[in-house]
């Protein structure tokens, strides 16, 4: 359980980094993301999950 909380905390830190450091770039990127179709968003989500799983298998 401790590892899960630590992973979640690290995810929050990484997710908050870009809006903190470069809010204009983050806002422009978010606007572009809103214009994507559902299929494109799903593709990025699936790709992200697969990369995460691969990293877990290699480094855990």
Could you please describe the fold and organization of this structure?
It is a single chain. The chain is flat, with a radius of gyration of 14 Å. It has 60 residues and is an all-alpha fold. The protein contains three helices and no strands. The two termini are 16 Å apart. The mean pLDDT is 94. It has one domain.
Question: Quick recap of the structure?
Answer:
The chain is mainly alpha-helical and 60 residues long. The protein is built from three helices and no strands.
Largest sheet: none
**Radius of gyration from the CA trace?**
14 Å
The rounded distance between the terminal residues' Cα atoms is 16 Å
Strand content: under 5%
Low-confidence stretches: none
Features:
60 residues
Please give the structural blueprint:
Blueprint: H1 2-21, H2 23-34, H3 38-59
Helix pairs in contact: 1-2
């Amino acid at each position: 359980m401790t590892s899960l909380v630590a992973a979640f905390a690290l995810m929050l830190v990484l997710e908050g980094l870009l809006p903190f450091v470069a809010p204009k770039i983050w806002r422009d990127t978010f606007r572009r993301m809103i214009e994507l179709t559902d299929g494109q968003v799903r593709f990025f989500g699936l790709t992200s999950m697969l990369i995460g799983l691969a990293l877990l298998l290699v480094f855990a």
